[in-house]
Input
Amino acid sequence: MAPINKAALLSEPKAHPLKVESIPCPTAGDGEIIVKVAATAINPMDWYIQIMGEQLFSWLQYPYVGGSDVAGTVVEVGPNVDKFKIGDRVLGLAAGFDARSGGFQNYVALEANIVAPIPADLDFTEASVLPLGLSTAACGLYQKDFLALDYPSVDPKPNGKTLLIWAGASSVGTNAIQLAVASGYEVYTTSSPKNFDYCKGLGAARVFDYNSPTITQDLIEAFQGKTSAGAFAIQIDSKKIVFEVISKVQGTKFVACAMEPTDVPEGVQAKMIFAGTLKENEVGSIIYDQYLPVALAQKKFRCLPKPLVFGHGLENIQAAIDLGKSGTVSARKIVVIL
Output
């Protein structure tokens, strides 16, 4: 008998609040596992989809179950999955954009190649902050049509190149700094001064105040004598500055963008990331199979930004999304325990 499944869902485009309703429990298809969700995290995508609906993604089907970040326990293993068994503790990216594979429900279908086992001593709330930020960072850093950096390892050797990551204290930035350092790069990043120590703790070599009136010139000067590995523009309004800096450095002149690049200067290449694409190429396996399980077990990769636990139960998802949308939470990730 299938377990009872409930979800916090959008019944129609732009509906507010989300409704908590019973929905069918998914069964595992080819290459999938079913996870009983213990914790799920909130991301900007969740409020953008709710506010913008078809203006953002015209292809969404309703009722729609959101939620990209999941940690929990495997309860079913589908055909052609040999890396997991029932009872395994995991984190994973819910990348399906349909009712059966959104994280805001009790039981979710996940593609096994973007799921990683987690150590016994890692709390589900901590683990749930990683998947979307980690996947977005990995797509921009490692995919062949993006920055194509060296892959991460738990014992990296410096390669002599410097990467600029704009918005280091964001979820994507936090993961991108850690990954880039694990790949042997020197990282320059930006944040507000209150997050300088946080970014340095992640491994950034230098941190710059993104509100400084001289930020563009400061970064260009910092790159003097350095070989650029490119840049990662995460904050919505950062691309103009990042493009200008990268246009004036020696080395790679490519910018991975978390937004649609516009007005890209001559000589600079830029492309927007879509986090789910790593499931279709070698980067998914490199991160979720090869690097992350070992790095978590050896405490070489940290689950950050720290979770800000906002209640228990699906009834709290909407208020958690509203809190994220308010813009009052910095260097933390909002998590709801299920």
